[in-house]
Specification:
Layout (H helix, E strand, L loop, with lengths): L32 H4 L5 H4 L3 H14 L6
Length: 68
């Protein structure tokens, strides 16, 4: 299952998360570079999981490729 060569669809949880929403690839060489490029911050994580999910939804929308 490691690697997502075509990325992950927006709005779909990463398949590498466990039941506690933790990354099973953390610290592993297979972990996608984009994940390591997102250092946690209060802006990104907020105070609740819901706030973090809103941030990620906005990030996904802002970086979504233009449909051809």
């Amino acid at each position: 299952m490691p690697g997502l060569p075509k990325g992950k669809p927006a709005g779909v949880p990463c398949p590498h998360l466990d039941a506690e929403w933790r990354c099973r690839l953390f610290g592993q060489p297979e972990r996608p570079a984009v994940c390591g490029s997102l250092p946690p911050s209060h802006e990104m994580c907020g105070d609740t999981r819901e706030q973090a999910m809103i941030y990620l939804q906005r990030l996904e929308a802002a970086t979504r490729p233009d449909p051809d």
